[in-house]
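During the no-cost extension, the postdoctoral fellow (Dr. R.K.) reprocessed legacy sequence entries with the updated structure-token encoder. One reprocessed record is reproduced below for audit purposes.
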Amino acid sequence: MIGLPRLMPHGMKVGAVSLWLLLLLSEKPMYGYEIIRELEKRFSGYWKPKTGTIYPALDRLEKNRLVTSRVEFREEAPDRKHYALTEKGRVELASTMSYWTKMTEILENYRETHQSIFRHKSELGKQELSSFFVKLGEAVGGKSVDTKNLFPGSIGKQARISPTEPVALKFLYAKENHKLEIHMEIEWTPHQKGRAQSI
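Re-encoded structure tokens follow.
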């Protein structure tokens, strides 16, 4: 499953793959291979689940008593293990769906609130980074500057940065996933009608 975060809030037992398994089993009981084929169908080939992913996830769900299983013994074909959602599984699914719904709403509200005017991402040497901050400082101290002047090799529409006073500054130095990061936000409200802009 692509697009769902791996980290879960405290107490939540299911991740992205397990969530899809619970969703399928909430419709009807299914055996392992049937689940894999159904997932392929739902994702239209964009995700092809492997047995090495699905069966361990089903085992974890069963250990947590979110699903139950029974073996169908067949004489002329391999036995099948059928899985069904338990009442505890239905409660966990409802809780998890509520969490993902809230997360989707938060992300959608963030997207609507933070309108992207110009974006740029690259790797720089320390000297190049120093030169960038000098140019940025001159731009903030002056009347305006074009983004193409700040980022000559960037691809995209040109935008003009015109800070007005007062300027708000937020600075955060943090460690995340064994990496050190600096997050800086400079924000102002333009004199003309419009919302606050930030870089």
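Residues 1-13, 194-199 have pLDDT under 50 and may be disordered. DSSP finds six helices and eight strands in the chain. The remaining legacy entries will be reprocessed before the final report is submitted.
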